[in-house]
Amino acid sequence: MMIATEEIWRATSHFLGWFYFLCWSFSFYPQAIKNFRRNSTVGLAVDFPFSNILGFTAYSVSTAVFLYSPTIRSQYAFRHPISQVPSVRFNDFAFALHGAILSIITYSQFFPLIWGFQVGRNQRSSWVFRGIVTGSIAGVFGVILIVLILSKDGGNDPLGWAWIDVIYAVGFVKVLVTVVKYCPQVWVNYQRKSTVGWSMGQILLDFAGGITSILQMVVDSSLDADWSGITGNPVKFALGNVSMIFDIIFIVQHYILYPSRTEKDLADEDDSEAGEREPLLNA
Protein backbone atom coordinates (compact mmCIF):
# COMPACT_ATOMS: atom_id res chain seq x y z
CA MET A 1 0.00 0.00 0.00
CA MET A 2 2.84 2.39 0.86
CA ILE A 3 4.52 1.66 -2.48
CA ALA A 4 1.30 2.39 -4.35
CA THR A 5 0.85 5.65 -2.45
CA GLU A 6 4.41 6.71 -3.22
CA GLU A 7 3.89 5.99 -6.91
CA ILE A 8 0.77 8.16 -6.88
CA TRP A 9 2.66 11.05 -5.33
CA ARG A 10 5.54 10.69 -7.78
CA ALA A 11 3.04 10.71 -10.62
CA THR A 12 1.52 13.84 -9.04
CA SER A 13 4.96 15.45 -8.99
CA HIS A 14 5.44 14.59 -12.65
CA PHE A 15 2.04 16.09 -13.51
CA LEU A 16 2.72 19.26 -11.51
CA GLY A 17 6.07 19.65 -13.24
CA TRP A 18 4.63 19.55 -16.71
CA PHE A 19 1.60 21.62 -15.72
CA TYR A 20 3.75 24.52 -14.48
CA PHE A 21 6.00 24.06 -17.50
CA LEU A 22 3.01 24.53 -19.80
CA CYS A 23 1.62 27.48 -17.80
CA TRP A 24 4.94 29.31 -17.66
CA SER A 25 5.79 28.46 -21.25
CA PHE A 26 2.45 29.62 -22.65
CA SER A 27 2.71 32.78 -20.53
CA PHE A 28 5.33 34.14 -22.96
CA TYR A 29 2.94 34.18 -25.90
CA PRO A 30 0.13 36.57 -24.83
CA GLN A 31 2.44 39.60 -24.65
CA ALA A 32 4.14 38.94 -27.99
CA ILE A 33 0.75 38.30 -29.61
CA LYS A 34 -0.71 41.43 -28.01
CA ASN A 35 2.12 43.54 -29.41
CA PHE A 36 1.56 42.00 -32.83
CA ARG A 37 -2.20 42.63 -32.79
CA ARG A 38 -1.75 46.24 -31.61
CA ASN A 39 1.19 46.76 -33.96
CA SER A 40 2.71 48.55 -30.99
CA THR A 41 4.82 48.01 -27.90
CA VAL A 42 3.48 51.12 -26.13
CA GLY A 43 2.53 50.23 -22.57
CA LEU A 44 5.17 47.53 -22.19
CA ALA A 45 8.31 48.31 -20.21
CA VAL A 46 11.28 47.42 -22.42
CA ASP A 47 13.36 46.40 -19.41
CA PHE A 48 11.06 43.42 -18.87
CA PRO A 49 11.99 41.41 -22.00
CA PHE A 50 15.51 42.90 -21.98
CA SER A 51 16.28 41.49 -18.53
CA ASN A 52 14.42 38.27 -19.30
CA ILE A 53 16.98 37.43 -21.97
CA LEU A 54 19.74 37.41 -19.36
CA GLY A 55 17.60 35.69 -16.74
CA PHE A 56 16.42 32.80 -18.86
CA THR A 57 19.79 32.33 -20.51
CA ALA A 58 21.29 31.98 -17.03
CA TYR A 59 18.50 29.62 -15.99
CA SER A 60 19.03 27.52 -19.12
CA VAL A 61 22.71 27.13 -18.31
CA SER A 62 22.04 26.35 -14.65
CA THR A 63 19.39 23.68 -15.27
CA ALA A 64 21.31 22.09 -18.14
CA VAL A 65 24.44 21.69 -16.02
CA PHE A 66 22.52 20.26 -13.05
CA LEU A 67 20.91 17.76 -15.40
CA TYR A 68 23.82 16.67 -17.56
CA SER A 69 27.16 17.50 -15.88
CA PRO A 70 28.63 14.52 -13.96
CA THR A 71 31.00 16.88 -12.13
CA ILE A 72 28.27 19.19 -10.87
CA ARG A 73 25.95 16.33 -9.97
CA SER A 74 28.68 14.60 -7.97
CA GLN A 75 29.50 17.84 -6.14
CA TYR A 76 25.81 18.35 -5.39
CA ALA A 77 25.55 14.79 -4.05
CA PHE A 78 28.55 15.40 -1.78
CA ARG A 79 27.03 18.57 -0.33
CA HIS A 80 23.57 17.01 0.04
CA PRO A 81 24.22 13.45 1.24
CA ILE A 82 20.65 12.74 2.32
CA SER A 83 19.08 13.63 -1.03
CA GLN A 84 21.87 13.36 -3.57
CA VAL A 85 19.91 13.99 -6.76
CA PRO A 86 19.18 17.65 -7.68
CA SER A 87 15.48 18.50 -7.81
CA VAL A 88 15.97 20.00 -11.29
CA ARG A 89 13.87 18.24 -13.93
CA PHE A 90 14.01 18.18 -17.72
CA ASN A 91 10.89 20.34 -17.85
CA ASP A 92 12.86 23.02 -15.94
CA PHE A 93 15.48 23.10 -18.68
CA ALA A 94 12.89 22.98 -21.47
CA PHE A 95 11.01 25.88 -19.89
CA ALA A 96 14.18 27.94 -19.43
CA LEU A 97 15.38 27.48 -23.01
CA HIS A 98 11.93 28.20 -24.40
CA GLY A 99 11.72 31.32 -22.22
CA ALA A 100 15.06 32.62 -23.48
CA ILE A 101 13.96 32.24 -27.11
CA LEU A 102 10.58 33.93 -26.55
CA SER A 103 12.22 36.75 -24.59
CA ILE A 104 14.51 37.46 -27.53
CA ILE A 105 11.51 37.54 -29.87
CA THR A 106 9.56 39.91 -27.60
CA TYR A 107 12.56 42.20 -27.17
CA SER A 108 13.06 42.28 -30.93
CA GLN A 109 9.57 43.79 -31.26
CA PHE A 110 11.00 47.05 -29.93
CA PHE A 111 13.02 47.42 -33.13
CA PRO A 112 10.86 48.98 -35.89
CA LEU A 113 13.32 47.87 -38.55
CA ILE A 114 12.43 44.26 -37.71
CA TRP A 115 8.69 44.38 -37.00
CA GLY A 116 7.58 47.89 -37.94
CA PHE A 117 5.74 48.31 -34.64
CA GLN A 118 5.00 51.65 -33.05
CA VAL A 119 7.55 52.26 -30.31
CA GLY A 120 7.53 55.09 -27.79
CA ARG A 121 10.43 57.50 -27.60
CA ASN A 122 11.20 56.56 -24.00
CA GLN A 123 10.98 52.83 -24.59
CA ARG A 124 14.67 52.18 -24.19
CA SER A 125 16.44 49.86 -21.80
CA SER A 126 17.45 51.91 -18.76
CA TRP A 127 20.99 52.42 -17.52
CA VAL A 128 19.94 50.67 -14.30
CA PHE A 129 19.08 47.44 -16.09
CA ARG A 130 22.06 47.68 -18.38
CA GLY A 131 24.13 47.95 -15.23
CA ILE A 132 22.39 44.92 -13.72
CA VAL A 133 23.13 42.86 -16.82
CA THR A 134 26.77 43.96 -16.92
CA GLY A 135 27.21 43.50 -13.18
CA SER A 136 25.63 40.03 -13.23
CA ILE A 137 27.93 38.82 -15.97
CA ALA A 138 30.95 40.33 -14.18
CA GLY A 139 29.85 38.68 -10.94
CA VAL A 140 29.75 35.21 -12.53
CA PHE A 141 33.20 35.69 -14.01
CA GLY A 142 34.36 36.86 -10.59
CA VAL A 143 33.22 33.59 -9.02
CA ILE A 144 35.00 31.68 -11.79
CA LEU A 145 38.22 33.51 -10.94
CA ILE A 146 37.76 32.75 -7.24
CA VAL A 147 37.33 29.04 -8.01
CA LEU A 148 40.40 29.02 -10.25
CA ILE A 149 42.54 30.87 -7.70
CA LEU A 150 41.37 29.42 -4.38
CA SER A 151 40.37 25.89 -5.32
CA LYS A 152 42.91 23.24 -4.32
CA ASP A 153 41.80 20.78 -6.99
CA GLY A 154 40.91 22.84 -10.02
CA GLY A 155 37.34 23.36 -8.83
CA ASN A 156 36.68 19.65 -8.32
CA ASP A 157 36.86 19.60 -4.51
CA PRO A 158 33.33 20.17 -3.14
CA LEU A 159 34.76 20.90 0.33
CA GLY A 160 36.03 24.28 -0.86
CA TRP A 161 35.34 26.57 -3.78
CA ALA A 162 34.10 24.34 -6.59
CA TRP A 163 32.47 24.57 -10.00
CA ILE A 164 29.07 24.05 -8.42
CA ASP A 165 29.50 27.47 -6.79
CA VAL A 166 29.81 28.98 -10.27
CA ILE A 167 26.55 27.32 -11.28
CA TYR A 168 24.89 28.60 -8.13
CA ALA A 169 26.10 32.08 -9.07
CA VAL A 170 24.61 31.67 -12.56
CA GLY A 171 21.36 30.51 -10.98
CA PHE A 172 21.20 33.49 -8.65
CA VAL A 173 21.46 35.77 -11.68
CA LYS A 174 18.04 34.43 -12.64
CA VAL A 175 16.76 35.11 -9.12
CA LEU A 176 18.07 38.69 -9.26
CA VAL A 177 16.45 39.27 -12.64
CA THR A 178 13.14 37.86 -11.39
CA VAL A 179 13.21 40.16 -8.36
CA VAL A 180 13.79 43.35 -10.37
CA LYS A 181 12.37 42.73 -13.85
CA TYR A 182 8.73 43.43 -12.94
CA CYS A 183 9.45 46.75 -11.18
CA PRO A 184 9.59 48.90 -14.35
CA GLN A 185 6.24 47.51 -15.52
CA VAL A 186 4.61 48.22 -12.16
CA TRP A 187 5.90 51.79 -12.46
CA VAL A 188 4.75 52.16 -16.09
CA ASN A 189 1.24 50.97 -15.13
CA TYR A 190 1.21 53.40 -12.22
CA GLN A 191 2.31 56.35 -14.33
CA ARG A 192 -0.24 55.67 -17.04
CA LYS A 193 -2.92 54.62 -14.52
CA SER A 194 -3.57 51.74 -16.88
CA THR A 195 -2.47 48.24 -17.78
CA VAL A 196 -3.23 48.76 -21.48
CA GLY A 197 -0.40 47.25 -23.49
CA TRP A 198 0.48 44.82 -20.70
CA SER A 199 -0.97 41.33 -21.17
CA MET A 200 -2.85 39.96 -18.17
CA GLY A 201 -3.02 36.58 -19.86
CA GLN A 202 0.66 36.07 -19.16
CA ILE A 203 0.18 37.10 -15.53
CA LEU A 204 -2.62 34.63 -14.85
CA LEU A 205 -0.64 31.81 -16.47
CA ASP A 206 2.46 32.87 -14.57
CA PHE A 207 0.55 32.81 -11.28
CA ALA A 208 -0.78 29.30 -11.93
CA GLY A 209 2.71 28.15 -12.88
CA GLY A 210 4.22 29.60 -9.71
CA ILE A 211 1.76 27.77 -7.48
CA THR A 212 2.30 24.40 -9.16
CA SER A 213 6.08 24.87 -9.22
CA ILE A 214 6.16 25.31 -5.45
CA LEU A 215 3.79 22.39 -4.97
CA GLN A 216 6.05 20.12 -7.01
CA MET A 217 9.05 21.00 -4.84
CA VAL A 218 7.05 20.35 -1.68
CA VAL A 219 5.90 16.96 -2.97
CA ASP A 220 9.41 15.96 -4.06
CA SER A 221 10.98 17.00 -0.75
CA SER A 222 8.26 15.23 1.20
CA LEU A 223 8.79 12.00 -0.74
CA ASP A 224 12.53 12.14 -0.06
CA ALA A 225 11.95 13.13 3.58
CA ASP A 226 14.55 15.82 2.99
CA TRP A 227 13.78 19.51 2.56
CA SER A 228 17.18 20.16 1.05
CA GLY A 229 15.37 19.55 -2.22
CA ILE A 230 14.22 23.14 -1.71
CA THR A 231 17.32 24.60 -0.06
CA GLY A 232 19.48 22.84 -2.67
CA ASN A 233 17.48 24.41 -5.50
CA PRO A 234 16.83 27.96 -4.22
CA VAL A 235 16.48 29.34 -7.74
CA LYS A 236 13.33 27.39 -8.54
CA PHE A 237 11.87 28.09 -5.09
CA ALA A 238 12.55 31.82 -5.35
CA LEU A 239 11.17 32.00 -8.89
CA GLY A 240 7.80 30.68 -7.84
CA ASN A 241 7.42 32.94 -4.80
CA VAL A 242 8.75 36.21 -6.24
CA SER A 243 6.77 35.84 -9.45
CA MET A 244 3.53 35.25 -7.54
CA ILE A 245 4.03 38.38 -5.43
CA PHE A 246 4.33 40.56 -8.52
CA ASP A 247 1.49 38.68 -10.22
CA ILE A 248 -0.76 39.71 -7.34
CA ILE A 249 0.36 43.34 -7.74
CA PHE A 250 -0.52 43.28 -11.45
CA ILE A 251 -3.86 41.63 -10.76
CA VAL A 252 -4.69 44.40 -8.28
CA GLN A 253 -3.63 47.07 -10.77
CA HIS A 254 -5.67 45.58 -13.60
CA TYR A 255 -8.87 44.54 -11.84
CA ILE A 256 -9.06 46.97 -8.89
CA LEU A 257 -6.99 50.13 -9.40
CA TYR A 258 -7.30 50.78 -13.15
CA PRO A 259 -10.17 48.61 -14.40
CA SER A 260 -11.89 51.29 -16.49
CA ARG A 261 -8.95 52.35 -18.63
CA THR A 262 -9.14 50.89 -22.13
CA GLU A 263 -7.17 51.07 -25.36
CA LYS A 264 -9.54 53.74 -26.64
CA ASP A 265 -9.20 55.80 -23.45
CA LEU A 266 -5.46 56.05 -23.96
CA ALA A 267 -5.62 56.63 -27.71
CA ASP A 268 -5.93 60.40 -27.32
CA GLU A 269 -3.15 60.47 -24.75
CA ASP A 270 -0.90 58.47 -27.06
CA ASP A 271 -1.78 60.75 -29.98
CA SER A 272 -0.99 63.82 -27.92
CA GLU A 273 2.44 62.37 -27.26
CA ALA A 274 3.01 61.48 -30.91
CA GLY A 275 5.51 64.29 -31.23
CA GLU A 276 7.61 62.59 -28.57
CA ARG A 277 7.71 59.30 -30.41
CA GLU A 278 10.43 58.25 -32.75
CA PRO A 279 11.74 54.93 -34.00
CA LEU A 280 13.78 53.10 -31.41
CA LEU A 281 17.24 52.65 -32.87
CA ASN A 282 18.97 51.36 -29.77
CA ALA A 283 16.71 49.54 -27.31
Automatic annotation (TrEMBL):
Keyword Lipid metabolism: no
InterPro entries tied to this protein: LC_transporter (IPR005282), PQ-loop_rpt (IPR006603)
GO MF annotation: an example: L-cystine transmembrane transporter activity
Catalytic activity: L-cystine(out) + H(+)(out) = L-cystine(in) + H(+)(in)
Chief location: membrane
GO cellular component: fungal-type vacuole; vacuolar membrane
Domain of life: Eukaryota
Keywords: Lysosome, Membrane, Repeat, Symport, Transmembrane, Transmembrane helix, Transport
Pfam families attached to this UniProt entry: PQ-loop
Residue intervals passing through the bilayer: 15-32, 44-68, 93-115, 127-150, 162-183, 195-218, 238-258
Gene source species: Eremomyces bilateralis CBS 781.70
Name used for this protein in its record: L-cystine transporter-like protein
Keyword Transport: yes
Record-stated family: Belongs to the cystinosin family.
Membrane topology: Multi-pass membrane protein
Subcellular location(s) per record: Lysosome membrane
